[in-house]
Design brief:
Distance between the termini of chain B: 41 Å
Helix content of chain B: 10-25%
Oligomer: heterodimer
Mean pLDDT of chain B: 96
Order of helices and strands of chain A: EEEHEEEEEHHEH
Shape of chain A: globular
Structural class of chain B: alpha+beta
Distance between the termini of chain A: 19 Å
CATH class of chain A: Mainly Beta
Largest interface: A-B, 12 and 19 residues
CATH superfamily of the largest domain in chain B: Probable tRNA modification gtpase trme, domain 1
Number of domains of chain A: 1
Low-confidence stretches of chain A: none
Number of domains of chain B: 3
CATH architecture of chain A: Beta Barrel
Order of helices and strands of chain B: HEEHEEHEEEEHEEHEEEHEHHEEEEE
Number of helices of chain B: 8
Number of helices of chain A: 4
CATH architecture of the largest domain in chain B: 2-Layer Sandwich
Strand order of the largest sheet of chain A: 1-2-3-9-8-5
Helix content of chain A: 10-25%
Mean pLDDT of chain A: 93
CATH topology of chain A: OB fold (Dihydrolipoamide Acetyltransferase, E2P)
Strand content of chain A: 35-45%
Shape of chain B: globular
Strand content of chain B: 25-35%
Largest sheet of chain A: 6 strands, antiparallel
Radius of gyration of chain B: 20 Å
Largest sheet of chain B: 12 strands, mixed
Radius of gyration of chain A: 13 Å
């Protein structure tokens, strides 16, 4: 998407990642990278899918996303176990650019500590970290 | 971004075109406009235009100009032809005494006793110093820094020549030659060279004419292309990038540039280059493609010895490609390599250069 956007229903990590807590199941979250992250990277050409069953730790890298020019770590906004990965990214990694909050999601987690969400930012606070 | 970055004459044009600007070798340069993939493909399929004004120029003139350049440059400079309004173009490397590469350069003959050598931005000051220091032995040769006198545009792609021809007073110079032309009213040195593997020209003009020239060529259909596309284009055709694939740590024979070294001209470093040519280098620069998914990057180790010096995803081929120094015994076309990409072992195969050919 060409215009920056930070949906209000997501939680944000200052390392440019988002989490969507499933309203029906607060122990499950979908993760992705923000509009800012994909815009800084440029066209994403490769996303090396992590494995279902792997554990991720809040604030640590759990995957890498690559543009033509550079590789960038993806930081986990929450801790948990990966229960699903977005297989569509294998053939179409540019979904991360086109629809970073929708078709470009990265993984789904079963959270180990749903309380961690309290340390994440809302859209307004995240936007403020980008310096307007 | 530090305030000390220099800007080219086209800075405003880049910003107006929506470029993402980055610091590169002390210059604030456009890394991309719409997107590297589209820009890359525009050059492969039609025409792109690059601002390469960050590159430096050194002019050598006078009765001993040829003698000085023959001493400095690895190629046989005497072979550069001279014509009425310009002359030939030649690629060479600049070596230290030990054969280490200081820079790789294109030299254009402007006149019987006048040559213009284009330097890499990051090396310009060092090159100039090297030229000036050695000019002391050739009192009839004059070395002039022309960095501030030229803007440089590269117009590249299968229809690039047609676009530039349409604004030229007379036919453009052929490939690997250079000549002065009037382009849209401006005095321009038109060079039949480039860094993309496509046909096209490089244009050197006074900085005050650059913006109008850029605008006119874009208006006629050239797509502005940034440094990121320039890098993927050159890597697909295996052109060296100084600082990645060339350095003072390695010589031209290792880099596969023996073809532009003429040791019989006694250039600085010739004895060292001859020694390695005769004994055979211990390592060689090879082109590779990753067999499966993944993209190797500069600095990734090759298992069993060697390292990747350039790596990217090839927009034309859709696979990870790159250049790597590997032990000579593993440099043959078809050799299997394993590259340590941040802890993941990625199988790769040594491929013939260039990695991309028209129609492949």
């Amino acid at each position: 998407m060409a215009e920056d956007s930070y949906p209000d229903d997501l939680l944000y990590h200052p390392e440019h990642d988002w989490a969507r807590i499933e309203p029906a199941d607060p122990a499950q979250a979908t993760l992705g990278i923000t509009w800012y992250a994909q815009d800084s990277l440029g066209e994403v050409v490769f996303f090396d899918l992590p494995s279902v069953g792997a554990s991720v730790k809040k604030d640590a890298s759990y995957a890498e996303v690559e543009s033509v020019k550079a590789v960038s770590d993806v930081i986990a906004p929450l801790s948990g176990e990966i229960v699903a990965v977005n297989d569509a990214l294998t053939d179409n990694p540019n979904l991360i650019n086109e629809d970073p909050y929708g078709e470009g999601w990265l993984v789904k987690l079963r959270l180990v500590d749903p309380g961690e969400r309290d340390s994440l930012l809302d859209a307004a606070a995240y936007r403020a970290t980008l310096g307007g | 971004m530090p305030a000390t970055l220099r800007r080219t004459a086209l800075y405003d044009a880049h910003v107006a075109a929506g470029a993402k600007m980055v610091g590169f070798a002390g210059w604030e340069m456009p890394v991309q406009y719409e997107g590297v993939r589209a820009e890359h493909l525009a050059v492969r399929e039609a025409c792109g235009i690059f601002d390469v004004s960050h590159m430096g120029e050194i002019e050598v003139s006078g009765p001993q100009a040829l003698e000085l350049l023959q001493r400095l440059l690895s190629n046989d400079v005497a072979k550069i032809a001279v014509e009425l309004d310009g002359g030939g173009a030649q690629y060479s490397v600049l070596c230290r005494e030990d054969g280490g590469v200081l820079d790789d350069l294109f030299t254009y003959r402007l006149d019987a006793d006048r040559y213009l050598t284009v330097t890499n931005a990051a090396n310009h000051a060092r090159d100039l110093q090297w030229f000036q220091a050695h000019a002391e032995d050739f009192p009839e040769a004059r070395v002039m820094d022309r960095l501030d006198d030229y803007a440089m545009l590269a117009v590249q792609g299968p229809v690039a020549r047609g676009i530039v021809q349409a604004i030229s007073d007379v036919p453009l110079p052929a490939r690997m030659t250079a000549a002065r032309r009037r382009l849209a009213g401006a005095d321009v040195l038109v060079c039949g060279t480039g860094y993309t593997g496509e046909d096209g020209v490089e244009l050197l003009c006074a900085p005050e004419h650059a913006a109008a020239l850029w605008e006119e060529i874009v208006r006629r259909g050239a797509v502005p292309a940034g440094l990121a596309a320039r890098d993927t284009l050159r890597l697909e055709v295996c052109f060296h990038l100084y600082g990645n694939d060339l350095s003072i740590e390695r010589g031209p024979i290792e880099a596969g540039l023996g073809w532009c070294c003429r040791e019989e001209t006694d250039f600085i470093g010739a004895p060292a280059v001859r020694r390695i040519r005769e004994s055979g280098p211990r390592e060689k620069l090879v082109a590779f493609a990753i067999d499966g998914p993944g993209i190797a990057r500069q600095g990734n180790p090759v298992v069993g010895g060697g390292e990747v010096t350039s790596g990217t995803l090839s927009p034309s081929l859709g696979v990870g490609i790159g250049l790597a120094y590997v032990p000579a015994e593993r440099a043959a076309i078809g050799s299997s390599l394993e590259i340590d990409v941040r802890g993941k072992m990625r199988p790769a195969t040594v491929r013939e250069k260039p990695l991309y050919r028209k129609g492949s």
